[in-house]
Amino acid sequence: MDAPTEQITAWLNQRLAGFDAHIGLRFEHASPERVVAEVELGPQHRQPFGLVHGGLYSAVVEAICSTGGGVAVFGQGKTVVGLDNHTSFHRAARPGVITATATPVKAGRRTHLWRAEIVDSAGRLVAT
User: Fold this and answer.
1) Distances (CA, A) of 19 to 8, 47, 53, 67, 118
2) Backbone angles phi, psi at 97, to 5 degrees
3) Within 10 Å of residue 115's Cβ, how many Cβ atoms?
């Protein structure tokens, strides 16, 4: 996409649907160099022991990294799919907002590798 970052971000948020919309994902920034999204944590994100379900972190990582790859190549008429997701959980998140940031490690001709970090409302790393 060769549109300004604000237009790309607005376009993504206008088209949120399915699982991303269900978990409450909201894009704050989207460019070929960086994608930032937030989720306001609620009871629907917790597992039976009261902690945020690890699957939420994995889903957010998948969403923002795939979005970053897509934003990087859609202007070339290409599409993307996620190939792998290795999510590490570092600490439990408390109620509030989690912010996820993805950046490319390698943007190749046929594959991209993106790294994501998720922090809680206090800026503490909760997942990568």
Assistant:
1) 20, 17, 15, 14, 18
2) -115, 135
3) 14
pTM: 0.93
Residue partners of 103: CB distance under 8 A and separation at least 6: 33, 34, 68, 114, 115
Across the strands, what pairs with 97?
Answer: 40
Instruction: Write out the two tokens for 10.
Output: 């607005």
- Closest residue by Cα to residue 30 from 70, 61, 78, 79: 70
60-69 in b/e form (b: 16+ CB < 10 A) is bbbbbbbbbb
Asked if 11 and 70 touch (Cβ cutoff 8 Å), the reply is: no
**pLDDT tens digits along 13-60:** 999 999 999 999 999 999 999 999 999 999 999 999 989 999 999 999
Which residue reads 């022991």 in tokens?
49
Which residue is associated with the tokens 């989690």? Answer: 98
